[in-house]
Fold:
Amino acid sequence: MRQRHKVLGLLAVLSVLTFLDRLAIAVAGPGIQADLHIRPEEWGWILSAYVLANGLFEMPSGALGDRYGQRGELTRIVTWWSAFTAFTGWCRGFWQLVVVRFLFGMGAAGAYPNSAGVIARWFPVQERARSQGVVWAASRLGGALAPLLIVPLQQWFGWRSVFWLLGVAGFFWAVIWHSRFRNTPHEHRSVTAEELREIGEAPMAHAEKTIPWRRLLRSRELWLVVLAYGCYGCGSWFYFSWFPVWMVHSAGFSLEGVLLTSLPFVMGLAANLAGGVLGDRLRACLRSLDLIRCGYQGSYS
Structure:
């Protein structure tokens, strides 16, 4: 097995853990609300605290990974968010949950930008879309597993134990990542010369030392991506946050019925895998069309 595929496996596990930790508060939500007497409007602030912090610190965390490398940054991210995942299990009221979930969101920010940075350094251009597809499909796997794992754990051991166990899992991943990953393939002693040739030269090799914020903020392509992702987030965050609570309190499902919340994530898993493969094929097709077009232009010049 190529070393880059082992790296992709670690990123996939990270992505599963990311969504297990994000959705734990949603899946366990009915039990937490009942136990701590949290009103619906207060629950909205608890859920929003994570999203607000995650949005505010996403860019700074991604920038740190670009500057200092994803080995240390992802270790910091997962250690931080795992600590506050575990602290969630010790909360006793509304304000404690708001503060802990805000700090959890601050720590979790940058996980996916830094994963993208790893893929850019470790994978050849023709494999990057499918590699991203695997990472995002793994996140949907985490979303699908969340109710299947958390509902039984909550019934057997209580909702607090869910967050403690997830915190331990995150710490374990961070130790493995820091011990086995290196920022570039050239730094990893197990990467062969043949695999280095397959990977090629990463774009970061000649990256600017300072981040060109002015050029980035003037990029039309960047703002189109931001718009697209913003529209995606408006719909998807209902399923990431309110869906289980809505099913229990508004749709009349039992706690076991929350298991049905896995279904949208199963569909997302398949769509992300397909989208990654199609993305690489589309890039190859467009590149072939460009070469053909250049060839025709050259024949008439």
